[in-house]
Design a protein that fits this description.
Largest sheet of chain B: 8 strands, antiparallel
Radius of gyration of chain B: 27 Å
Helix content of chain A: 40-55%
Shape of chain B: globular
Number of strands of chain B: 33
Largest interface: A-B, 42 and 22 residues
Strand order of the largest sheet of chain B: 11-10-16-7-8-15-12-13
Distance between the termini of chain B: 68 Å
Strand content of chain B: 25-35%
CATH topology of the largest domain in chain A: pyruvate-formate lyase- activating enzyme
Helix content of chain B: 10-25%
Oligomer: heterodimer
Number of domains of chain A: 2
Structural class of chain A: alpha/beta
Structural class of chain B: alpha+beta
Distance between the termini of chain A: 23 Å
CATH class of the largest domain in chain A: Alpha Beta
Largest sheet of chain A: 9 strands, mixed
Radius of gyration of chain A: 21 Å
Number of helices of chain B: 13
Strand order of the largest sheet of chain A: 9-10-8-7-6-5-4-1-11
């Protein structure tokens, strides 16, 4: 290693360690698993939940006392799942108490909890709000009962409307709704209907994901067996374009491939991923990225609990990223943002320009009309947006 | 000190793939103590990884054993291993010429296969003493009596003394060694006469140069002699003489009747051709041994590096493979679609596959192989004859008077229940039925005349799949015959892709054209634009397909911070792209160039 490379790395580490971290907590329980879901999740039971919360506390203790995290500022908190709100009100309350015991953040810090509309009540929401949660992300997914049933969701549209109302009453002024399009047999009309109905609820933020048929999920098996007809690429594209046109028309800003927000309400936590910044993931199957190392916790609940109780880190995989891997990830995550990758940010992190590393690829993609360069950003064009993976592949 | 001729036995082993030849050879080595059990790496004679994996012998090998016979005398046994594939018939004939006897190894439950039969006939032509061995008698399905009867009926050999053996358990090995000593005649040939030796194989050694495997017929050869290769006329000084134990071991001289090797600093295997005769410069023999011919490639294909910068590496790799394999021929060619590459000639499809695999494995090259072609004789209207081994070089249809293509005499052996399936396949492949013979009660031998081009179009795989793997095939190139052939061009994105042109029978053009396009549509990944693919004969489009444009390729979900997974996924997708060739604005995967071989038959 030359002295210059060494110095660059030292500078890099110092820069990263001073950046603060995002905190993610995984709650791997659900009422039932959705038919498209390939995340780790278990059926909820009070006993399991209790054991899990205990283990979580133990894991928090490790990190809170370790140098890795102890002196870092917590930029955002995100409690995701699974279904965090499948936990009973007291359990949720306890979770937040534990979190605040080991980590501290300011009042302005974004604290999000993911929620399934079928698992909420007014009291639960009030407790969350009072415990410091200031952003609620509701998995609404669709407004039509047939589509919700096909997805294996446990709630209906009326419950989603009710949940929004309760959330507002509880004082939540930062609300996200998750939506899924390109569901088998979904028509573009149904999608337009969902968009219209949900925009009327005036959420501050909307995430519109197209359905990914992940291997071995009941939904993808049904499609393979011909029991369900997958949405065609053409209609998925039409729905995506409709989403952008409709929501921007309603005053939402399209700021990431799948994400829309009212001014000032972008998801701080997810921005951390897109800016390829550091985060600590706690809980089953959670992923972390600190000091250029990525690691993942085990996805086996029993193992997680046992390991933690024996004071072992429940880490399954650990990978020290090379500089070029970090560069790749910074680019393809950054390009997910509609404004694109910040050129200055890239240069100051890696001490070289993105155009030095990928000049040929960037030129080619610009010629193909998939990428554009502004004075400050490298970004996907309108044409490049639905072909993002074609672009990303050039940078790995 | 050389051994007296009456104590030498030279023999080879004739067997079908899987009938246990290599295991039997190993057993013989073990029994005679040529190798301790410890040194035995399974199947010593097949030294290439590829040979071990596929269980086939590609390169000839030889080994010398000392055997203490029951008569109290010590004998020297030379085993010459033979390749068991139709592509290497000439090599087999040369190794047979170096022997006085042959073990005919037949699987006790499978019976004689087509290539075995062909090789036995070759052995009989060379007047070899044949010792039948019924192998694998330890298997529950073994039917040694029935197999013996089959050997008697089909080949006319006396099997009353056939050895029932199991190379696996070692049963019968002692008996085989005794029969070799007692039945195979010792070599003859005057030790005092001028040197006459047959080259039956060679290999290239980085230190010794070319090592020639020889059988001395008359005279003797020793270090320091000046020798001449009679067919090529080249002369060398012998730098080393030795035998195979099985490691190369130097000896003072090799005399008439012996098998061994010589090296002489020859740098090019082409100077030392299989079948050539070695004599001395000072005291040459008048006539060379008969049977020498230059191996003629019958199957040709284009080899191109996926990445154009690999062109020189590909040439170096071919040069190196050529050092060991004089039958591989290649010359530079250029394709509009694929750029610079080589047109290579092979002894057959297996030979082609082997070279291709070795280039990828041993030389780490990513290459594109175009569909194989036979050599066509094209007679143009001006009376000239051209040899066309690359379909894209075919003259314009208007200038062609007629085309001739090579035919083969094919022999298929199959259980009688599959006769119908084999006949149907041969019919579809423009075959002419010659005759059919029962081998005992359950098996049948079918003879067909078939165009070679039909054989190289996936014939063997089809034959195997239609007969549940039971059929065996042997063929021999016979003659050129006139056929109604046309050149089919493939247009990709409206531009002719020369590397995909093929020559096919007119009656099959529509079907093959449609099937090929359907296959290509599957294989060619979608681009950001629509890609038309067409099949054309002359200016006439006979089929058309479209690869739809890729309009959406975006992953919405965030994977909950699992960014490594996303990166790995992108990397994997990108890796797939590396094996593609950029043709104009289209990326074409490797497999597309061979697609024509896998389009199946019209049902």
């Amino acid at each position: 290693m030359t002295l210059i490379t060494y110095m660059r790395i030292v500078i890099l580490v110092i820069k990263i360690t001073n950046m603060g971290i995002a905190l993610y907590v995984h709650i791997p329980f659900c009422v039932q698993k959705c038919r498209y879901c390939d995340f780790v999740s278990y059926n909820y039971s009070p006993d399991l939940a209790q054991a899990y919360l205990k283990a979580l506390e133990q894991e928090m203790l490790f990190y809170a006392s370790s140098e890795l995290v102890s002196n870092k500022k917590i930029n955002t908190v995100f409690i995701g799942g699974g279904t965090p709100t499948v936990l009973a009100t007291v359990e949720l309350e306890r979770l937040l108490v534990i979190l605040k015991t080991y980590f501290s953040w300011s009042k302005e810090t974004e604290v999000t909890v993911e929620a399934n509309p079928g698992t909420l009540c007014k009291q639960k929401l009030t407790v969350l709000k009072n415990a410091g949660v200031n952003r609620l992300s509701l998995g609404v997914q669709a407004c039509q009962s047939n589509l919700l049933a096909l997805l294996g969701r446990v709630h209906n549209y009326d419950q989603a409307v009710q949940a929004v109302e309760w959330a507002r009453q509880a004082g939540f002024d930062n609300l996200n709704l998750d939506l899924i399009f390109a569901i088998p047999h979904q028509t573009i009309k149904e999608w337009q209907e969902s968009l219209t109905l949900l925009a009327d609820l005036q959420p501050e933020h909307l995430s519109c994901y197209d359905l990914q048929l992940e291997d071995n999920t009941p939904l993808s098996v049904a499609v393979e067996q011909g029991k369900l007809l997958a949405c065609s690429e053409e209609s998925a594209l039409a729905m995506y374009q409709e989403t952008i046109a409709f929501l921007t028309g309603k005053g939402y800003s399209h700021y990431e491939i799948s994400n829309f927000s009212k001014p000032g309400y972008q998801s701080e936590h997810n921005l951390c991923y897109w800016h390829n910044k550091q985060y600590l993931g706690l809980g089953l199957a959670a992923h972390s990225y600190i000091n250029s190392t990525r690691w993942a916790n085990t996805g086996n609940l029993e193992q997680y609990i046992t390991k933690v109780s024996k004071e072992f880190l429940p880490v399954d995989e650990r990978h020290q990223l090379t500089t070029s891997e970090m560069m790749s990830e910074t680019v393809f995550m950054g390009l997910r943002l509609i404004n694109g990758l910040q050129l200055d940010d890239f240069s100051s992190r890696f001490n070289c320009r993105v155009t030095d590393v990928w000049s040929e690829q960037i030129n080619k993609l610009m010629k193909q009309g998939l990428l554009a360069m502004t004075a400050t950003h490298l970004k996907l064009t309108k044409k490049g947006l639905p072909l993002a993976n074609v672009v990303f592949r050039e940078f790995v | 000190m050389s051994v007296k001729q009456e104590h030498i036995r030279n023999f080879c082993i004739i067997a079908h793939i899987d009938h246990g030849k290599s295991t039997l050879a190993d057993r013989l080595l073990e029994h005679t103590g040529a190798l301790s059990e410890r040194e035995m790496e399974a199947q010593v004679l097949d030294t290439m990884d590829l040979e071990k994996e596929r269980g086939i012998t590609i390169k000839l090998q030889a080994v010398r054993l000392k055997y203490q016979a029951l008569d109290g005398q010590e004998y020297l046994l030379n085993i010459i291993d033979t390749p068991g594939h139709v592509d290497f018939t000439y090599e087999v004939s040369r190794s047979l010429a170096a022997c006085e006897g042959a073990l005919l190894v037949v699987d006790a439950s499978q019976g004689i296969e087509a290539q075995t039969l062909a090789n036995v006939y070759l052995a009989l032509e060379h007047d070899l003493e044949i010792i039948p061995v019924i192998n694998k008698i330890d298997l529950p399905s073994a039917e040694p009596e029935q197999i013996k009867k089959e050997i008697e009926d089909v080949i006319g050999l006396d099997t009353s003394n056939a050895v029932a053996a199991s190379a696996k358990t070692g049963e019968g090995i002692a008996e085989i060694l005794e029969q070799i000593v007692n039945k195979v005649p010792p070599p003859q040939g005057d030790v005092k006469a001028p040197l006459k030796a047959l080259i039956f194989d060679s290999h290239y050694d980085a230190y010794k140069g070319v090592v020639s495997y020889i059988r001395v017929m008359t005279g003797a050869v020793k270090k320091g002699m000046n020798i001449r290769m009679m067919a090529t006329g080249t002369e060398f000084e012998v730098s080393e003489v030795g035998v195979f134990r099985p490691a190369l071991t130097e000896v003072a001289e090799l005399q008439a009747g012996e098998v061994g090797f010589i090296s002489s600093g020859i740098k090019d295997v082409k100077d030392c051709r299989v079948g050539d005769t070695i004599t001395t410069v000072e005291r040459p023999v008048a006539a060379a041994l008969s049977g020498y011919r230059q191996a003629t490639p019958v199957v040709f294909c284009g080899l191109y590096p996926v990445d154009t910068v690999d062109y020189d590496n590909l040439r170096d790799a071919l040069d190196k493979l050529n050092l060991n394999d004089a039958s591989l021929i290649y010359e530079p060619e250029t394709s509009d679609a694929l750029g610079f590459g080589f047109r290579c000639g092979f002894l057959g499809l297996l030979h082609m596959e082997i070279i291709q695999e070795r280039l990828e494995r041993e030389y780490n090259l990513t290459i594109i192989t175009t569909a194989p072609s036979v050599v066509y004789h094209v007679f143009t209207t001006d009376g000239a004859r051209q040899q066309i081994e690359n379909p894209s070089k075919m003259p314009d249809a208007g200038k062609i008077d007629h085309i001739k293509e090579p035919y083969v005499q094919a022999t298929v052996m199959v259980p009688k229940d599959f006769v119908g399936a084999v006949m149907e396949l041969c019919q579809q492949r423009r075959g002419t039925f010659k005759n059919m013979e029962y081998l005992g009660l359950t098996r049948v031998m079918l003879n067909y005349e078939l165009p070679l081009s039909e054989i190289i179009f996936d014939f063997f795989d089809q034959l195997k799949s239609r007969t549940k793997g039971y059929a065996s095939l042997d063929y021999e190139i016979s003659e050129y015959r006139q056929s109604t052939l046309v050149k089919m061009d493939i247009l990709l994105n409206n531009e002719s892709l020369d590397a995909l042109s093929c020559i096919i029978h007119r009656d099959k053009a529509y079907y093959r054209g449609r099937a090929l396009l359907a296959k290509l549509r599957e294989l060619i990944t979608r681009h950001q634009f629509e890609i038309p693919i067409q099949a054309a004969i002359g200016n006439k489009i006979i089929a058309r397909e479209t690869v739809r444009a890729l309009r959406k390729d975006v992953t919405a979900k965030c994977y909950g911070g699992d960014i490594s997974r996303k990166r790995k996924l992108l990397e994997k997708q990108k890796e797939g792209k590396k094996r593609m060739k950029q043709v104009g604005s289209v990326e074409v995967p490797q497999e597309a160039f061979m697609a024509v071989l896998n389009i199946g038959e019209e049902q």
